Amino acid sequence: MDGDLNLDYSKPIYIIGDVHGCLETLCALIEKLPQKWDSQIIFTGDLIDRGAKSCEVVDLVMKYNYACVLGNHEELMLEYYHAIPSKGYNKIWINNGGYEAMESYQRNGGFEKIHEHLEWFLKLPRFLEIPLCDEKGQRLFVTHGFGLPYYKEKEKKAEMVTWSRLKSHNWEKEAKKNYGVFNVFGHDVRKVPMIMENFAAIDTGCVYVGDDSKSAVLSALEWPSKQIYQQDNCER
């Protein structure tokens, strides 16, 4: 469930998609939220890699004690630094944004800071289920990947919850099922948020500036209203 998040269910929750080291864009988006820095925020993971300020983004999330689920990029970094057993992905990290992350850490404390953040990553849950319901009585289910198909076996198949993509499932069929939860996730980059009856894909590729197939926008979904807040990439 919501663990030790100490959420106030009389106030909305804001779920923010994959940040990927885009610090200025994240700060600008938070400034657009009604309660700004006092907002109840949950991140879908992938705080790091590709963008220039991975270390700074993680520091910010830790400073404000915002909630976050484990993203596949955090898992790749954990494996690269041998904080978790190898699954054969360790060489993938560097070529998928890890190099930029390393540069960020070199500017901000080096291995001491890396160790601090790896310890924090190890404590991140793979999913959060929040008993704050929408108009249909659906609880909030936050994951990094498309977790809905694994909801009934989420403990047993927790790793799949992190890595799952829409294209691996019949999402139109999933959208018609009643799990009692509404799944908000990142991982699948889309030009605009995809909001269905029981899930929302909110990674709008904020780091991908110059790629016409992506919007280079950071998105947040307000729960339970499902209103979307967005910020164009504004990295300097």
From TrEMBL:
GO terms for molecular function: phosphatase activity. One of its GO terms (cellular component) is cytoplasm. Residues 12-174 form the Calcineurin-like phosphoesterase domain. It comes from the Bacteria. It holds the Pfam family Metallophos. InterPro entries: Ap4A_hydrolase, Calcineurin-like_PHP, Metallo-depent_PP-like, Ser/Thr-sp_prot-phosphatase. PANTHER family: METALLOPHOSPHOESTERASE, ZINC-DEPENDENT ENDOPOLYPHOSPHATASE. This is Serine/threonine protein phosphatase. The lineage of its organism: Bacteria, Pseudomonadati, Campylobacterota, Epsilonproteobacteria, Campylobacterales.
